[in-house]
């Protein structure tokens, strides 16, 4: 007689699945719930085809087995209009339904689209979303709260039933921000800014992670997402503000260095321009911001004077500097701040004057008509632009 335990041995491979949690199908936020519904509906539509095909495969194998002498043998059969109609019409209808469902869901659940409701029963009304700036580092997450003036590493706290607008970027490589119980996944990329909207409808502690491989410390790039009531969130902000440590540019550069399994920490004060500088890759002193560089390029560039607008790298280990015209490794120095750039662009003339094509010769001569000649950069800032050596014909 076979022991009952031996009969159940074939179930042993299923034991590891007992530790899995179906977070995607048991969400705690409205966006994640709508994504789960879309996933279930799409699966059920596809099963309309998959289940009959699998059942018919077994039935045909049994019906037309070699030992079944009662099965009809028709070697000259080659076409059936009814069968062709069933084979092509039903899958076509399923594809049309899946396409319509996907099209509507893609636009309705666009991560850039502000929320149109808190839950199925609660509209957004006039609730302002909580702004959270997210920076993906090697290998940790930085969360900046510009309204509250605090920041946290590997810890996210948000109020329940309040929309959250995430603004994301990265420091080095592309990464993926994902809180399965709250919203979908969105990529964070260096030098770029992406947006994700989400909401928590139930208080609790949830798992957040990086869902895109980003290097050696990827496995430890996880954080706790805490959904709190309004009083609990205010208490969390007050506790962070009482910490005392400030997140300025120098502290950020130290934090940016690769590190693994970093414990949660908070900062009481944050440089208000920090996230903008991270996106524009100009946190270091003396580095030109991308926004400023693109604005100069849009106006025609600095021309020949820009060749001498360089400064020696203080840390040759960062990046891969390349000599230009025989100069030592360099980086472009900033000419103005982001705020000065905004004012500069706001006061730019509608019709720029034509540029002077003649080359710049010697020290002290006027620069060709361009960014400098148009007066778009303050005079006190243009004094910092080095001039080419005397009597040097460029």
UniProtKB/TrEMBL annotation:
Q: List the membrane topology term(s).
A: Multi-pass membrane protein
The UniProt record lists the Cytochrome oxidase subunit II transmembrane region profile domain at 16-113
Give TM segment ranges.
Answer: 38-62, 83-104
GO terms under biological process:
ATP synthesis coupled electron transport
The answer to whether UniProt assigns keyword Cytoplasm to this entry is no
Q: Which PROSITE patterns match?
A: COX2_CUA (PS50857), COX2_TM (PS50999)
In its keyword annotation, does this UniProt entry include S-adenosyl-L-methionine? no
Cellular component aspect of the GO annotation: plasma membrane
Q: Which InterPro entries has this protein been placed in?
A: CcO_II, CcO_II-like_C, COX_ARM, Cupredoxin, CuRO_UO_II, Cyt_c_oxidase_su2_TM_dom, Cyt_c_oxidase_su2_TM_sf, Cyt_o_ubiquinol_oxidase_su2
Which Gene3D superfamilies does this UniProt record tie to the protein? 1.10.287.90, Cupredoxins - blue copper proteins
Q: Which domain of life is it from?
A: Bacteria
UniProt-listed SUPFAM superfamilies: Cupredoxins (SSF49503), Cytochrome c oxidase subunit II-like, transmembrane region (SSF81464)
Instruction: State the compartments where it is located.
Output: Cell membrane
Which protein family is it in?
Belongs to the cytochrome c oxidase subunit 2 family.
Its protein name is Ubiquinol oxidase polypeptide II
Phylogenetic placement of the source organism: Bacteria, Pseudomonadati, Pseudomonadota, Alphaproteobacteria, Rhodobacterales
